[in-house]
């Protein structure tokens, strides 16, 4: 392909993308294919000869599109959103064209400097005080891993990377059972071990970690010869939106000099609206905070904002400088690859620049406020309907419910029937052994009418058991 062909195909693919989005409501939200359907359409062997782009594009429509679950569908109410607002997609197109590696300031000064400034814009937008410094990680899982590695190294006097964990004090990290499994995986990968991830009991409607129980768990562990390393709290847990009482939990952590990390992967975006910030009261005391602009805010995946009170501890944990990565004459500049596990890094800050400038914070706030209001209104309607029991009230735009008087099997069957129907997409969760339907509003282009369709479909299929 030469660059003239590229320009022609680039224009065609942009047109395709716009048409896809304009007509996306006509498609079933969840792919309706069976396992193996798509693979069976792909040749077993790679082609020896070059093929025409026309043929490749036709096959894209024929083979790929039927097997896509449409995350940008406005009636995607499952999981959490992965919004790709149009300006952020355009920025990604530019980033793809430039295809720079942004591991060091020198390998892409604009990317580094824009990352610093964009993370400071985000810091202000979500109401964190000056003094927090941000870096973009590929995912919240990576940010949490970086935080857990930092708490491990700090607790071991920076010996773990060099000496390994054998013969070291046994570490302990504390969280509730409401945190995302990315915390478990970070604990595994860091070599701390799942049995040393202590689950502190929760209390209240927000399922917050009980600070007294946290205090006594830490105290008992110290008495038993463990070395506590850190506390991980959540704002907006994945299952029901659980929110820890960050101020109370972090006060306990500080009393024991423990490193603290806040996982607000989904809910962090809502903190651009001051009225929701009570959900993470005390967050300014944290050492490390992650939220994903690639979820609710609209920055195309991947873009995870990781804020640090003292980046030096993270750099001390992760930086490694072989001669070929030294930038002689530019010492003392930020090299973001020293702040994360991977060396190579994409230019992710550009899409934040495009996104925030295109909508303004007020435009982004309006979307989030609408989503919360529509979700609350739907929840109120279902509460008043005899077919439904609300299990957990909305936390921001997430709530859970069950078909009244039905067993777990019926709830799963209901979820499957909703998703086979195709007009909406939801998933289930397990709350203390009870399966509940999990519903969140958050897709960037969702409208009140889309939530009205959801209301209609939820009631229609609840009244029409298969
Ligand atoms: N934390 C929470 C609360 C989440 O809901 C998720 C994913 O949905 C994650 C962490 C993991 O995010 P990522 O896919 O960016 O690793």
UniProtKB/TrEMBL annotation:
Molecular function GO labels: carboxy-lyase activity; pyridoxal phosphate binding; transaminase activity
Residue numbers of N6-(pyridoxal phosphate)lysine PTMs: 295
Superkingdom as given in the UniProt entry: Bacteria
InterPro entries documented for this protein: Aromatic_deC, PyrdxlP-dep_de-COase
One of the GO biological process terms: carboxylic acid metabolic process
GO cellular component: a single term: cytoplasm
Pfam families: Pyridoxal_deC
Record key words, sorted: Aminotransferase, Decarboxylase, Lyase, Pyridoxal phosphate, Transferase
First and last residue of the signal peptide: none
Cofactor(s) required for function per UniProt: pyridoxal 5'-phosphate
Keyword set includes Transferase: yes
PANTHER family documented for this protein: GROUP II PYRIDOXAL-5-PHOSPHATE DECARBOXYLASE (PTHR11999), MIP05841P (PTHR11999:SF70)
Record-given protein name: Aspartate aminotransferase family protein
Originating organism: Roseobacter insulae
Lineage, highest ranks first: Bacteria, Pseudomonadati, Pseudomonadota, Alphaproteobacteria, Rhodobacterales
